[in-house]
Specification:
The chain is mainly alpha-helical and 198 residues long. It has eight helices and three strands, in the order ααββααβαααα.
């Protein structure tokens, strides 16, 4: 039953991810050509004008075409009188900028779909996988032996108020002894399996 649930969950996750990727690919393919799809938010002209006489510096942005990207079309209202416009505009540096909001949207959709798939997989591992996985027959006796050793060492350890350092040392020594026993047990089981296989 659990294996069927996990198989269905995995298939559902794969279908969701593949459908999201298919939708994003269709958006990329079916989007109109670059020149036709340029909206007013995708293009702009940015003019950086430094301080001039008693006028402080300022940055001007305007949605205009590339041929109109100059100080005369972007700087509005003009902060200087008519006879100083030419000198002021020579100081301003204008740059034409364009971006593709469609590409940005597609990248965000792909990113969110990957994060969503990873979250679904994490939920699967946390919720369903422990129910499916059975305890290993080789590691369970060692785990039980560790718990018994811990209980024995806690019961046998003296608890006077001034002997806290001794109990810590005893715990460390007990942990070392348990570790040595585990290594010996693992060697023994590996050699036994090796003999059985050969």
């Amino acid at each position: 039953l659990f294996s069927q649930v996990s198989m269905m969950f995995a298939q559902c996750t794969q279908k969701c991810v593949s459908s999201v990727l298919l939708i994003t690919l269709l958006c990329c393919i079916l989007s109109p050509p670059a020149q036709a799809s340029k909206s007013s938010e995708d293009i702009r002209c940015k003019c950086i004008c430094p301080p001039y006489r008693n006028i402080s510096g300022h940055i001007y942005n305007k949605n205009v075409s590339q041929k109109d990207c100059n100080c005369l079309h972007v700087v509005e209202p003009m902060p200087v009188p008519g006879n100083d416009v030419e000198a002021y505009c020579l100081l301003c540096e204008c740059k034409y900028e364009e971006r593709s909001t469609t590409t940005i949207k597609v990248i965000i959709i792909i990113y969110l779909s990957v994060v969503g798939a990873l979250l679904l997989y994490m939920a699967f591992l946390v919720l369903v996988d422990p129910l499916i996985r059975k305890p290993d027959a080789y590691t369970q006796p060692l785990h039980n032996e560790e718990e018994n050793e811990d209980a024995r060492s806690l019961a046998a350890a003296p608890t006077p108020s001034g002997a806290r350092a001794n109990t810590v040392l005893e715990r460390v020594e007990g942990a070392q002894q348990r570790w040595k026993r585990q290594v010996q047990e693992q060697r023994k089981t590996v050699f036994d399996r090796h003999k059985m296989l050969s």
